[in-house]
Amino acid sequence: MKAQRTRSQERILQLLKNVKRAISAQDLYIKLRKSNQNMGLATVYRSLEALKLQGEIQVRTLPNGESVYSSIHQDQHHLTCVNCGNSIPIAECPVHDLEHQLEQSHHFKVYYHTLEFFGVCDRCQLAQDA
Ligand SMILES: [Zn+2]
Ligand SMILES: [Zn+2]
């Protein structure tokens, strides 16, 4: 399925590729304004939804309930501390091969996957022990 992307979607996708991290729709909106690309918040949300359906971006929900968006070409996983909310990126993707296997066995086109580990970070462990 080759969807025709709107100009707003193109701008958002480009921005997400440039920032190289997951950001919220609100932050995205602010960034667009700063670069003089006026776009309403509703348009930002609508474009993000369309890009998600096209399999171009992924959504991650933070422990505080906020949704952050990133380009799917960043296969990035995190260790997230439930105490301080700190997210530590991990270098490797342990399910990369599994993704290919599932695509084959289920004839399913996988756009992206999410994998996140929750626990307590080293600093919070130290604070707890003290
Ligand atoms: Zn912590
Ligand atoms: Zn991965």
UniProtKB/TrEMBL annotation:
Keywords: DNA-binding, Iron, Metal-binding, Repressor, Transcription, Transcription regulation, Zinc
InterPro entries: FUR (IPR002481), Fur_C (IPR043135), WH-like_DNA-bd_sf (IPR036388), WH_DNA-bd_sf (IPR036390)
Pfam families registered for this protein in UniProt: FUR (PF01475)
An annotated Gene Ontology molecular function: transcription cis-regulatory region binding
Database matches in Gene3D superfamilies: 3.30.1490.190, Winged helix-like DNA-binding domain superfamily/Winged helix DNA-binding domain
SUPFAM superfamilies registered for this protein in UniProt: Winged helix' DNA-binding domain
Binding residue positions for Zn(2+): 81, 84, 121, 124
Note accompanying the cofactor annotation: Binds 1 Mn(2+) or Fe(2+) ion per subunit. Binds 1 zinc ion per subunit.
Origin: domain of life: Bacteria
GO biological process, one term: negative regulation of DNA-templated transcription
Annotated family: Belongs to the Fur family.
Protein name in the entry: Ferric uptake regulator, Fur family
Organism of this sequence: Stanieria cyanosphaera (strain ATCC 29371 / PCC 7437)
